[in-house]
Amino acid sequence: MENGAARTAPAVIVAIDGPSGTGKSSTSKAVAAQLGLSYLDTGAQYRAITWWMVSNGIDIDDASAIAAAAGKPDIVSGTDPTAPSITVDGTDVAGPIRTQEVTSKVSAVSAVPEVRARITELQRSIAAGAENGIVVEGRDIGTTVLPDADLKIFLTASPEARAARRSGELKGVDVHATREALLKRDAADSSRKTSPLAKADDAVEVDTSDLTLQQVIECVVTLVEEKRAGK
Ligand code: DC
């Protein structure tokens, strides 16, 4: 070892993109925890800024009002995969950002270029500060936020599998209604002009429809380990 430096695994940046219901969050957290990496949920940041807009009476249909307010909330994301956290102006919003109201409005807010510029800058500075490496999950991480990520994964699953998982999480919610809501949000997230949901050309696509969560985690851990080993 040169200069007596400790031999540690090199910091690795992993981008995990894909629509909701593909197991993205559960996989990203578990992979980060297993490999000792930091973790960033970028969807939570878009949800947090949406929550702030709603709480402050900003008209969600008024893109210029959203753009004008985009710089105001102070959003802080914790990066411990075993205890993810998010605050807005010091208030813990981990619960409020998961309400139906925020979920139905987040696509409109996250389509505004000023919102994306603000949140992208935040994401890049968090990734740059993660000394041991980081798993960043979202929709545009491999394409826009961290195009030089060491490893890019794009998770997919059939609409049926995704709706079944989501309605299982949101107990008592009808699978058909969940499927329609997911497809509507996908269409909005994929068709927006600024950094839409998209697979990077160099991303590894993993279809999780017929895999258990444990199998997806093992698959991604193997891909990260191979990358670290220089394969
Ligand atoms: O992953 P999620 O469902 O919590 O994300 C909520 C919304 O945030 C999603 O509908 C689109 C938006 N989003 C985005 O535009 N870009 C990201 N990198 C992450 C999420």
Automatic annotation (TrEMBL):
This is Cytidylate kinase. It is found in: Cytoplasm. CDD domains: CMPK (cd02020). InterPro entries: Cytidylate_kin, Cytidylate_kinase_dom, P-loop_NTPase. ATP binds at residues 18-26. Keywords: ATP-binding, Cytoplasm, Kinase, Nucleotide-binding, Transferase. Transmembrane segments: none annotated. Its EC number is 2.7.4.25. One of its GO terms (cellular component) is cytosol. It comes from the Bacteria. GO terms for molecular function: ATP binding; CMP kinase activity; dCMP kinase activity. Belongs to the cytidylate kinase family. Type 1 subfamily. Residues 14-225 form the Cytidylate kinase domain. PANTHER family: CYTIDYLATE KINASE (PTHR21299:SF2), CYTIDYLATE KINASE/PANTOATE-BETA-ALANINE LIGASE (PTHR21299). GO terms for biological process: nucleobase-containing small molecule interconversion; pyrimidine nucleotide metabolic process. It catalyses: CMP + ATP = CDP + ADP; dCMP + ATP = dCDP + ADP. Pfam families: Cytidylate_kin.
